[in-house]
Amino acid sequence: MYIAKTDSTNNLLRAEYLDREDLFTIVTDYQTAGRGQQGNGWESEEGKNLLFSTLLTDWDIPQSEQFVLNQIVSLSLYKAVVKLLDDTLKTHLSIKWPNDLYYGNKKLAGILIENIWQGTDDCKSIVGIGLNVNQNIFRSSAPNPVSLCQIVGKTLSRETILKDFLFFLQQYRILLHSKPLTDVRSQVQDEYMHSLYRREGVYRWQEREVSLQPTMPQMKVENGQFSASIHSITSVGELVLLTTDNTLRTFHFKQIRYVIG
């Protein structure tokens, strides 16, 4: 479904279209109140980028395993975009934990997944995605946006990217219904870790103020920053870091951020 302008495709889908079939999608040219994780805004020039929300129903993923869905959505977008890149360019594409799409150190796409539970087993998910496709100039204070046309040097079809994303998403749904969840989770985890931003090497991290007291009672840091490498991702989506003094530390999304630049 196409609509020229709306406040937010996630809001519109939630308000009026929750009774639609699996993979029902609303696409728009412009959002007046598009948002990302933690309520962050999303800048997008009208008609230039891919802005949409997709409804997921009956995926039969338990509440305790919902990060698998997060990984599947991220990987589906990653695969749709990597098709557009040559062998050299694709090495710079990655998924920034938990689910942003990055090219080098610049943000290419954001994903916001909202789960609507009816009881403990019945869940509908709204997947909202903003992918920078054909925008050449970014005017907001966002520190590091980039678009596909800036990367490849030409205008690209938003419709083709959406079609490919939905295709890969459907392939994962088929996988979920044909194999045990434990097997799917293992496969998805391997693919996710292989595609992860800064998956190798030691980098600086910034611990957010909300977690300074519970997780850092004996660790001396400067302004909450420390150096560590990515060790693993837990089944619930927590990031496990290995610090330079060989200490394993676990964080949920709001507790930690990458230091970039």
Structure commentary:
This protein has 261 residues and is of the alpha+beta class. The protein has two domains: 2-194, BirA Bifunctional Protein, domain 2 (2-Layer Sandwich); 203-258, SH3 type barrels (Roll), CATH 2.30.30. Helix content is 28%, strand content 30%. The chain contains seven helices and twelve strands. It has helices spanning 9-16, 66-82, 87-90, 148-152, 158-178, 181-194, 212-215; strands at residues 2-6, 25-31, 50-57, 93-96, 100-103, 106-118, 122-131, 203-207, 225-233, 239-243, 248-251, 256-258. The protein has a seven-stranded mixed beta sheet with strand order 1-2-3-7-6-5-4, with helices on both faces. The protein has a five-stranded antiparallel beta sheet with strand order 11-10-9-8-12, with no helix packed on it. A hairpin with a 5-residue loop joins strand 9 and strand 10 (239-243). Helix 2 (66-82) packs across helix 5 and helix 2 (66-82) packs across helix 6 (181-194). The chain is globular, with a radius of gyration of 18 Å.
